[in-house]
What we know:
7 strands; alpha+beta; globular; Aminopeptidase; 7-stranded mixed β-sheet; 159 residues; 30% strand
Amino acid sequence: MPEPFALRERTDADHGFLQALYFSSREDLQQAMADPALLQQLMAMQRNAQEMGFRQHFPQARQWLLLQSGHPIGRMVVDASPAQLHLVDIAVLPEARRSGAATAALSALQAHALARGLPLSLSVSHTNQAARRLYAKLGFTTTSQDDMLARMVWHGDCT
């Protein structure tokens, strides 16, 4: 990855950062609840449910921290199978968005997929227009969609 960005595998010591990252990504819950203690409890439950869902649906997935100048600013969850790479989730702290971090991480993942001759797939919420624009800019195309999600794939030169 280009400086100042880097990836490293998640460790148990990253729990606090990952909790803060999840909280920062849930503006919907922050706006819906006035009681800070209840909000913290609900978000912790939601994050635990997300992690359990990742482990259940993508038991082989690996989690990577996205670093900027050595400091964590995001997280990427990637599931690899013989047929494809699948971006399960990517999140970047609000203050690090639009810094090129997600583009750098996704470009590195695309290079990894291309080197292995695999497509790279992901799902994105219809409401996440910024992410959808980024994915389209990076060459992902929509393959299917439902009421909540668009499924997208990038083939590079491996089609």
